[in-house]
Amino acid sequence: MKTEADEKASCSSKNGSDGDASSSFDIDHDPVYSYQEQRTLIHRIDRRLVVTLGLLYCMSQIDRSNLGHPFIAGMTDELALDVGYRFSIVVLVFFPTYVIFQPPSTVLTRKFGPRKFSAAITLLWDDVGKRYFGFNVIGCIALAFGGILAYGLMQMDGVSAMAGWRWIFIIKGVITCAASFLAYLFFVDFLEKADKSWRFLNTDEGDFILRRINKDRDDAKVESFSLGRFLRPARNLEIWIFALISFFIITVASSISIFLPIILENNMGFSVAASQCLIAPPYAVAALLMWLSAYVGDRYHVRGPSLIANFLIALTGLPIMGFAASSGARYFCVFLVTAGTNANIATALAYQANNVRGQWKRAFCSALFVGFGGIGGISGATIFRSQDAPRCIPGMSAAIT
Q1: Which residue, 149, 194, 182, is CA-closest to 55?
Q2: Dihedral, CA atoms, 29, 215, 224, 131, nearest 10 degrees?
Q3: Residues 154 and 164: beta-carbon distance below 8 Å
Q4: If phi over 0 gives left and psi between -120 and 50 gives alpha, with beta otherwise, what is residue 84?
Q5: What is the value of pTM for the model shown?
Q6: How far, in Å, CA of 339 to CA of 333, rounded?
Q7: Angle in degrees, CA 149, 155, 160, rounded to 5
Q8: Cα 313 from chain centre
Q9: Confidence (pLDDT) at 5
C-alpha cells in the first residue's frame, strides 16, 4: 500500500523527471497518463463494472434465496411441501445447472463477450478484494431486503385471485428480466472491444489498461481457446483446494439464505412477518465484515488470515444457533454465521484471483470454483429436512461439520 510520500514521488516521476530504469517496471508508471489520470480512469472503470456486476449478482442472490420466503408465506400448505423430502428436492434442482453449465459458460463468455452472454443468461433464468466486495455486498443488501420485499409482496394475497406467495415469484421474476435489459445496455465487453461499449473507454484508454495488466501479470493478450489448454490447469492441486473452499463456504451460506426464514419461524418461534423482516440485520452485519475483510486483505496483501478468522466466527455461531435454549441467543448467533460465511465468499474469490495467472487457467479455476459452489448448494439444500423441524439438529450438525 502506497504512503502519501510514495504517491507524491510516483506522481513526480511521471510528470517530467528522468526516473530510473526501475520505473519501467512500476505498475503506476505510464508513458501517456499521469498518476492522477490513471486513478480517475481506474475508478471510472470500477464504478461501471462493479455496479453492473453487482446488479446481476443481486438478481442471482434474490432468485437463489427466493424459496424460503414463499415457504412460510403459504406455499408449503398449498403444495404440501412439508412432506418428506419435497421441499429439499425443489431447492436442490436449481443447483445442478450451476455445476453442468459453468465450464461451458466460461468459454462462451470469452467467445461472445460478457455483455451479450451475461444479459442473455440473466433473462433466461487489482485491489481485487474491494472489487469483489463491491458486487458481493450488493448481493448481501439484496438478501437483507429480500425478506422485507417478500413480506410486502405477501400483502398482495388475493389480487387477481392469486395467493401472496405466488406474487413473490412473479414480481421478483419481472425485476430479474428488467435487470437483464439494463445489463445489456451498461455491461461492457473485454478490453479488445471496450471502445465499442456505450460510453465506456476509448482506444487510448483501452490500450493503457492493457499495458497495466501486462505489467501486473503479463496475460492481457487474448489466448485462443483449445480444450487441452482449458483443462490443463486441472493438474494443479491449488485449483482443487480453491474449489473445496468454495464447496464448504457455499454449503453453509446457501442453506442459511434459503432456510433462514423457515428456521426463524419454526425453530425460534417468530411470526411470519417477523421471520421475513429479521433476515435483514444479519446480512447488514455481513456486509460490514465483508468490507473489513476486503480492507485488511488489500492493505496487508493477505487473504488467508481473513478467511480463517471469518470461518472461526461462523463456527462459533453455528452450535449456539442450533442448540441453545434461548431464542434470543440463537438469533444473535444468526449474525455470526451469516456474517462469517458471506464475508468468506468475497474473500475466497479474491484469494483465488490473486493466486492464479493465465487467462484459461483463471477461467478454469473460476469455473471449478463456481461449479463446486453449485455442489455446495446441493449439499446445503439437503441437510435441512422437513421431518427434522423444528430443531433441525441434523442440519445444524452437518453445517458445523
Answers
A1: 182
A2: -90
A3: yes
A4: left
A5: 0.71
A6: 10
A7: 115
A8: 19
A9: 41
